[in-house]
Design brief:
This protein is an all-alpha fold. The protein has 17 helices and no strands. Keywords: Membrane, Transmembrane, Transmembrane helix.
């Protein structure tokens, strides 16, 4: 039950959708320039820079654009001061992503300070607007829940909460780069207070360290990655998939039991995993990690099963993108649970989650959402009366999407191999990824250009009067 009468202006989501591939192309260009050195370690400045260009500039950019479209249409939620919020958040996310990547690459505290001053207000403004919109429409959302439309709304709520956790952890880590000396003194004081507090609440053997005293900066980094990729991106992609896979891929709906508890289970297990980090790398933490992996594996396997039974037998490019995303998610979960090759493993895990799962998912979404939005908004223009509006599947020709799909799959395969042979394969993989992202941007831009051209078509009566 979609409320298209509440559609936001076309420019609201499209500005995010058009910006995302450019950030991914910029990350690929940085890898092309640096070559194998950027894949020598997960801690290298170039690796951190291109990772945040992909996660903040590309994945989060697309997720925010999808939220701006889904909240009013699917959930009926109107954001307060939507035009101002979307504009400011877009500028802040673009500028902040560039500044943060430059800070990692150049290792300049001033750039981290500017990035925090730009990113944090924009993301907090977006989170506040979404939270206020969801609170104002709580009554309508309860009615939708009775009608079975709660899965996507629940996913959005939990993904936004995960984004808040991700931003908090990321802000703490960025502060360590922005103000190194002051952060070290403050962190030491906080650690002492937290250790004393946890020792009082959770007394243990005399020779055992307090619970919270076992947290380290590396633990915060691991949790930042987990909450960002699994909580923010993973839960939101699943919530969107519950809506767009049956709608655009012509499949059966997801099983009700899965849509009902997936988001809640994933969020609860992420919270439990965060607490388990205080106990060290033992059986409890490994058990929670295994359960978390099982939840996401079930979502991936269910999606693959639905796509295999879709009502259109011929696989479209978007279908293959979704299959690639689910295969990458399953492979990433396997790599995460079976550690080996300590240098290459984190890099391969990042490639599978960011490029394989995240980037493939947004490709699968954008090639359906953008043509549909362009087609829908053209229905209210004179071009429709003139019979000039093409069908949804002709807004972006399928052959163009297939070319870009081929580039994407080759880039993903070479990037995975480059984690183990960086000197030999990093630059060819980067070139293919850059070409794929620029091809995606061009296909989306062509759809927007088509809208601009047809939107400018004059009504027949006006054309005859002017003649």
């Amino acid at each position: 039950m979609l409320a298209f009468d509440r559609n936001p202006p076309l420019s609201a989501p499209l500005r995010y959708f058009l910006s995302a591939p450019l950030f991914a192309a910029l990350a690929a260009a940085l890898l092309l320039w640096q070559g194998g050195d950027a894949l020598a370690s997960r801690w290298s400045p170039a690796t951190l820079a291109l990772t945040h260009l992909l996660t903040l500039g590309c994945l989060s950019m697309t997720m925010v654009g999808a939220l701006l479209q889904i909240l009013p249409v699917v959930a009926g939620v109107a954001l307060p001061r939507a035009a101002l919020t979307t504009g400011v958040a877009h500028v802040g996310l673009c500028a902040g992503s560039l500044l943060l990547a430059a800070g990692f690459w150049l290792q300049r505290p001033a750039l981290f300070q500017l990035a925090m001053a730009t990113l944090l207000p924009a993301l907090l403004m977006l989170l506040s607007a979404c939270a206020l919109g969801l609170w104002r429409h709580a009554g309508e959302l309860k009615q939708q829940a009775r009608g079975g439309a709660s899965a996507t709304v629940t996913g959005i709520r939990l993904a936004l909460a995960a984004l808040a956790v991700t931003v908090t952890l990321g802000g703490l880590l960025a502060a360590a780069f922005a103000w190194p000396a002051g952060f070290a003194r403050g962190a030491a004081g906080v650690a002492q207070a937290a250790a004393a507090w946890s020792a009082a609440l959770f007394p243990g053997p005399a020779d055992a360290p307090p619970l919270l005293a076992q947290f380290s900066v590396l633990d915060l980094l691991d949790l930042h990655v987990a909450w960002g990729l699994l909580g923010w991106v993973g839960v939101l992609v699943a919530g969107v998939a519950f809506q767009v896979i049956p709608m655009f891929q012509v499949t059966e709906p997801y099983p009700h039991q899965l849509t009902r508890w997936f988001g809640t289970a994933a969020f609860a297990l992420l919270a439990a995993l965060s607490l388990m980090y205080g106990l060290g790398d033992g059986l409890p933490r490994q058990t929670v990690a295994l359960l978390l992996a099982a939840v996401f594996a079930l979502f991936a396997l269910t999606t693959v099963w639905l796509l295999a039974r879709r009502k259109r037998p011929r696989a479209e490019p978007t279908t293959i993108f979704w299959r690639c995303a689910m295969a990458s998610l399953l492979a990433a979960l396997l790599v995460w649970l079976l550690p080996y090759a300590p240098t290459a493993r984190p890099l391969a895990l990042g490639v599978l989650m960011i490029v394989g799962f995240g980037l493939s998912s947004i490709n699968g979404m954008l090639y359906k959402i953008v043509p549909f939005l362009v087609w829908y908004h053209l229905q209210a223009t004179p071009a429709r009366a003139a019979g000039q509006v093409p069908g949804v599947n002709r807004v972006i020709p399928e052959r163009h999407a297939r070319w870009q799909l081929g580039l994407h799959l080759l880039a993903l395969a070479l990037l995975l191999a480059a984690c183990y042979q960086p000197a030999l394969l990093a630059r060819p993989a980067a070139a293919l990824l850059c070409a794929s992202c620029l091809a995606l941007w061009w296909n989306l831009f062509a759809a927007v250009r088509l809208y601009g051209r047809l939107n400018a078509v004059a009504p027949k009566g006006a054309a005859q009067a002017s003649a």
